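Here is one chain, start to finish.
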Amino acid sequence: MDDVNHNQNSGKADRNDPLQSLSECRNEQTNSRKMERAQLLGQHTHETLNGTKVHIWIRDGKYLARGSYQKQRFGE
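Its structure:
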């Protein structure tokens, strides 16, 4: 009983708490799936020969090209 009170009062995370472990896992998954603006050849947005704009993103160390063509999304 004293150990439980000590852990609650110490402010340290209890690694045996399944709810806290689940919360940490969800945070890690969210952060790893985060897309950030990236640049290719010094630009975030490129325009193709037919005028379609392509935006460059990075997620999990991989570059992604995303945009729309004829109202259809590509690169998803």
